[in-house]
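TICKET: design request
STATUS: open
ATTACHED STRUCTURE:
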């Protein structure tokens, strides 16, 4: 049999069944090998063509340079609560973080969308390290495959809450969501995309009519406070951000989650809860309060449990749906906002 060897420029991870079939055919192989390839990549975790023992030996050897698009695990650390943080080395040597969070019958993966982050939010370790580049689609999907393999358990939920701002990498984020949903079989409703808000992007995202959850990092009840915590808020008024979120609800029929980090004595006072409630009354939304996870560079403090509960009760009195999310993985520096490239030691 003659085999036509083509080096694959776009890695295979991230490709759909139709694209993989097209690819094997371009390699001079029969179409049914596309389905085999799909299965070996997404279900059996093949890292190279050589792994795929159902393929003819001659082809496997000839095409062994094919880039499937998998990262390697640079470091793996386990927190006492079972959360596992992975530092993954990408094809070009950059390192990103992915976190596996097991709960009773679920496995959630917190994925990164960029190497570093350009948003520079003051309370977030990732932002302190600056921005390097966007992740390609396969680099996002690979994080999920890696965690799934490591836990030997199907991933049920994905949160785009790792390093980076997904709306600044919207095309690859959407392509990755398609793959996670259609190729790996993760329900769209189990996927959450978190954004600090980039003007015009929430509307753009809504136009794709996905059934994923949008989480918006609000963190403040007024514009002045928000600008203090989030530099990019200077170019995006709270009013405009909330308007865009209303459009998201209208276009998708899905409620929005508002994330609000609680920083002691800064944004956690009763008047902030009242102010936040006044913006959100009647808004199809849910507030997720996140008691601050400490990072080295700044001296914000996590509020006491009593202050957290006071904040909750004021929101509840205003009929705002609210829950408190204590991050998992604190001890492994794997919790929200603690993911940083500088933690990496080779
Ligand atoms: N850029 C996106 C996604 C990454 S951050 C965004 O901003 O939403 C994911 C969540 O972790 C966000 O709500 C973010 O604000 C929160 N976070 C960042 N630093 C944190 C910290 N130190 N403690 C608790 N949550 C933090």
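STATUS: resolved
RESOLUTION: sequence designed for all positions
ATTACHED SEQUENCE:
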């Amino acid at each position: 049999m003659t085999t036509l060897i083509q080096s694959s420029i776009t890695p295979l991870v991230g490709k759909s069944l139709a694209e993989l079939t097209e690819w094997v055919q371009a390699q001079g192989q029969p179409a049914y090998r596309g389905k085999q390839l799909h299965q070996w990549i997404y279900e059996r975790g093949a890292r190279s063509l050589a792994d795929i023992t159902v393929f003819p030996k001659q082809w496997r050897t000839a095409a062994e340079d094919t880039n499937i698009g998998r990262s390697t695990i640079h470091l793996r650390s386990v927190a006492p609560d079972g959360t596992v943080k992975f530092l993954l080395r990408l094809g070009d040597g950059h390192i990103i973080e992915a976190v596996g969070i097991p709960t009773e019958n679920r496995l959630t993966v917190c994925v990164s969308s960029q190497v570093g982050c350009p948003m520079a939010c003051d309370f977030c370790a990732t932002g302190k390290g600056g921005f390097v580049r966007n992740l390609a689609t396969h680099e996002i999907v690979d994080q999920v495959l890696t965690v799934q393999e490591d836990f030997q358990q199907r991933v049920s939920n994905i949160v785009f809450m790792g390093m980076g701002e997904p709306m600044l990498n919207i095309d690859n984020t959407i392509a990755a969501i398609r793959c996670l949903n259609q190729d790996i079989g993760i329900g769209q409703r189990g996927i959450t995309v978190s954004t600090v808000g980039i003007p015009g992007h929430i509307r753009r995202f809504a136009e794709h009519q996905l059934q994923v959850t949008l989480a918006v990092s609000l963190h403040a009840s007024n514009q002045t406070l928000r600008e203090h915590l989030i530099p990019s808020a200077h170019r995006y008024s709270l009013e405009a951000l909330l308007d865009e979120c209303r459009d998201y609800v209208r276009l998708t029929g899905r409620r929005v989650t508002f994330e609000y980090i609680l920083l002691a004595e800064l944004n956690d006072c009763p008047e902030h809860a009242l102010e936040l409630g006044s913006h959100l009354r009647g808004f199809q939304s849910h507030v997720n309060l996140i008691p601050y996870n400490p990072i080295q560079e700044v001296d914000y403090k996590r509020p006491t449990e009593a202050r957290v509960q006071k904040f909750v009760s004021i929101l509840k009195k205003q009929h705002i749906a609210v829950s408190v999310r204590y991050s998992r993985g604190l001890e492994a520096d794997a919790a929200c906002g603690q993911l940083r490239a500088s933690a990496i030691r080779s």
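CLOSING REMARK: The CA atoms of residues 110 and 161 lie 6 Å apart. Confidence is low (pLDDT under 50) at residues 1-8.
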